[in-house]
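Predicting structure from sequence has reshaped protein science. With that in mind, we have picked out one protein's residues alongside their backbone shape tokens:
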Amino acid sequence: MELTAPQRTGEPGTPVASAADRRRWWWRVARNVALGVVAVLFAIWLVLYVTKGRFLKTTFQSVVGKMLKRDVRVRGDFQLYFAPWNIKFLAEGLSVSNPAWASKPNLFEARRIDARVAPLSLIFGKRRIRWMELDGGALDMEWDAAHVANSWTFSEKKGKPFALPRIDRAAVRGTTVRFRDPRMQLLADLKVEDVTALEKRIGRAIGLSGGGRFRATPFRVEAQLLSPDATASGGENKLTLRAWANNNVIDVAGTLPSLAELEDVPLRTAARGRNMAELMEIIGVVIPNTRDFRLRGQLVKSGREYRFTRIAGRFGNSDLAGRLTVTNRERLHLDSVLTTRSLDIVDAAPFIGYNPDIVESRGAVAAAAATGAGPAMVMPDAELPVATMQRFDADLKWTIRDVKSRRVPVSNIDLTLDLERGRLALSPLTFAMARGNVASDWIFDTRQRPSANRYDIRLAPTPMGRLLAGYGVAEAGTTGTVRGRIQLAGRGDSIHDSLATSNGRIAFTMPQGSFWTRNVQLSELDIGTFVQKMFEKKLKEPVQINCGLIAFTVRNGVGAADPILIDTQKNVVLGRGGFSFRTEAIDLAIRADGKKFSLISGQSPVTIGGRFVQPKLDVISPELIGRAGVGLGLAIVATPVAGILAFVDVGDAKSAACGPVLAGATAQAQRTTKGEKRDDVDRGRPAKAEDGKRSDDEKQTQKKKFLGIF
């Protein structure tokens, strides 16, 4: 049929076309074009339907490969056609390659994939799959080392979150998913449980299981999508996950915007295990050992930050709450604020290197031995984790309200920790002790080898009655206070080694007040008997103290009295000897000299020996035996009355000037109340050599006065 366009109006010799003629002409044109398009589409549909589109296999590989900038291959049967209205896609041996930087050659592989795709969804960008059968699928999802590009974003631009198309029905068999993130140091290999959808719903849950490695720690994981129908429709992805790693169980639950999208998504988390140190070891962080723990909180990943908030739970018999932020940059960094209402003293044992379970079941000596310390030693010899401390940084503020302890009245602990490139500072570390305050700074600098460690501990004026209530001292009747300072510096990668090489000074002063004891034993050291033997009282009234100083000068790990000087209303208490941080041996002799004449006095040095773990009190000293011998000789040679002379105390003790005492001055600076230099105090010389035998020089410096008064 030949179409002739109507002639224009007004031209000479031609008829004038009406408007109706023009409309009929345009309608015929549109009809013919439409019929032509339908015919062409029908022809294409018919050809594809008859051939199943198998001839498009090469074209599909080439076109899709160029679009994705990947190598696309179909090694088996291929079909692409309308059946009848949805696009039928079938491929056997399909593979899509990964970018060159990936660790695996292919992003996706499948033995067989058979799908029905809604064609309009491809036009409008909302991909919808009516039906999909996937057999032997393998999906490899990776981020690059810089965490900028990923394997599933087909461009050179920044990687986008992974998003599944909407899937109405599916059957999945033998499919695996691999995920790798070098920045997180995470590798997971998961198996998708077989899924069969017979009607219009996938089912109530899709399961995943498998394992992998996080940093250097292997793990096992089981997960479920609890709302797969909503997931397939592009809705909520309700995920629950449980992982087992390094003797810990970790639970994660939440709603994801997409299956591989965790950014800024709040996730409920919970963890439990036998030792919190094993949990932190997973991310390469070292903390002291703990007893079993159970914690819960909320996790939000934001860029390089992993923020744990609303933390609450317990470790051992102690509670814990607060927040923790882990930043995964060039160096791992931890920033945390923690609070504890009640801390069991046993749970604090790991802070100095003890295993709390051993402390609770077998005591401190066994716990010290477990760290490598020698027999009968209490100072831990566990080495600092130097290499690990130099790999990460940390900031911590931890407040503890109460400490459960039978004998140590500690509360209101406020700890600030700063770890930077191997230098660990506990500064300040403050706490209340028996209504007094302790402020301290502990520095462990592992950048120097061996570690350079400093200890500075300051005790504000503290009531002795409450401080020593668990050691035989009565609160009622004891009004004296004590203040002091410990300043030591040493080298070593353990507390024992650093103290065994330390130098510095220890000094505790006592201003005027009273001191009263009860006859209560602590191990083999009986403070009640000790004080009674010192002052020869029946403990019916407290001892009145004018001032006192207990001080030691420490050289190369050995502390020597410098001085021990306590001035009371009736006596002057003097001490000599010292102790060793190396062997934990004690060798002290303390005695009280009367200020007034006493006819009958058995006073002699009371010695404290043994070791830190088991000090021993000896009230039968050689001086007392010597007095008894002299008395017996005089009684035999002269008269029984003459034997009393051996126990006469002439009462020549010189009262101490309290200024130098309260200033914590060394023995050389001590004076009498008359301003005279004291010659009866030790001057910082150890009482015994390291082998436990008194040297000749030490013997000469310990000459005694007549009748055993030194």
